[in-house]
Amino acid sequence: MKASELIFPGLQCVQPASGDVEITGGYTSDLLSDVMAHIKDGDALITIQAHKNTIAVASFTGAPAVIFCHGRTAAPDVLETAAKENIAVFVSSGSQYETTCALAKALGE
């Protein structure tokens, strides 16, 4: 699914990727070393860690998007870094569980 097509209740895109990136799955974790070890290329990263290190890990691992849960907002420098790395950033009002389930449903899983 293209990032621009990702829609579910409580989700807002706060930084679109330049060009439309493809989301093929999701990975939920707040432990960035766990993300680095297990996320798959094309997975959106679902987390509450709304900082630049999260964007760096997403870039390193090939995650096309990051979804910050519980309505956590990213600082302007985080969004700027995401734009430079061509990573879409979303904010979800839901919990990590709710957001993971909604992403799976949106992807038809």
From the alpha carbons, calculate the radius of gyration and give it in angstroms: 12 Å
Order of helices and strands: EEHEHEHEH
Relevant CATH superfamily: HprK N-terminal domain-like
What is the helical fraction, as a range of percent? 25-40%
**CATH topology description:** Udp-n-acetylmuramoylalanyl-d-glutamate--2,6- Diaminopimelate Ligase, Chain: A, domain 1
The CATH class is identified as Alpha Beta
Choose one word for the global shape: globular
Mean pLDDT: 96
Number of strands: 5
Strand order within the widest beta sheet: 1-5-4-3-2
Residues in β-strands, percent: 15-25%
The structural class is alpha/beta
Unreliably modeled segments: none
Assigned CATH architecture: 3-Layer(aba) Sandwich
Report the sheet with the most strands, covering strand number, pairing sense and barrel closure. Answer: 5 strands, mixed
Distinct helical segment count: 4
Q: Could you tell me how far the N terminus lies from the C terminus, measured between alpha carbons in angstroms?
A: 12 Å
Domain module tally: 1
